[in-house]
Amino acid sequence: MEDVKLHGAWTSPYSHYVIWTLKLKGIPFEYIEEDLSNKSDLLLQYNPVHKKIPVLVHGGRPICESMVIIEYLEEKWPQHPLVPSDAYERAVTRFWVRLAQEKGPNLSLLYRTAGEEQEKIKESIIEMLIVLEDCGPNKAKKFFGGDSINIVDIARKF
Ligand SMILES: N[C@@H](CCC(=O)N[C@@H](CS)C(=O)NCC(=O)O)C(=O)O
User: Which residue ranges does the record assign to the GST N-terminal domain (predicted)?
Assistant: First the structure.
């Protein structure tokens, strides 16, 4: 059995991206729930730069950042591919993943702001949704990323 561990937190969407990927690919893993107000020594040792979850530990070696982890899982466990094999399709996919990463955090900010600040965030989310309606990827397809779930569906928050 592969020695795969995931340090995460149930409140974190980034942890869930990795969990979904592990499950879609059928990779057995041990999950370690972190208390973000009292991070474990292991987490601080594994991610000394950002001190954040998720951290995947494969064979004792840590990998940080959800999308970096997902790309690693994709390379190591190619079953149920989440990234298109065609270079152009892959580039388009990365564009949408990057947009999701840039704009996604606005959604959670909506619940943590009030008044004028919240209104501005609301406007930018609506603007984003209109852009997605008008020129989102693969509108005719079943999933955001195409005919089957891919990395865009995993990364998106909107
Ligand atoms: N860009 C990172 C973001 C990870 C992130 O923001 N994790 C949060 C939980 S949602 C965290 O660990 N926060 C703890 C802290 O900031 O001290 C990724 O994609 O993995």
Answer: 2-81
Distance, CA 86 to ligand 1 centroid (Å)? 31
Tell which one of 12, 101, 102 to mutate to probe ligand 1, the residue whose CB is within 8 A of the most ligand atoms: 12
- Other residues' Cβ atoms within 10 Å of the Cβ of residue 141: 11
Please name each of the domains of the chain with its CATH number.
4-76 (3.40.30.10), 87-155 (1.20.1050.10)
Q: Which residue has the least CA distance to atom 10 on ligand 1?
A: 12
- The residue to which tokens 């730069």 are assigned: 49
Kindly give, in sequence order, each residue whose CB lies less than 8 Å from that of residue 95, ignoring residues fewer than 6 positions away.
none
Q: Are 71 and 154 in contact (CB under 8 A)?
A: no
Closest C-alpha residue for ligand 1 atom 12: 52
pTM: 0.89
- 108-119 confidence digits (pLDDT tens): 888 899 999 999
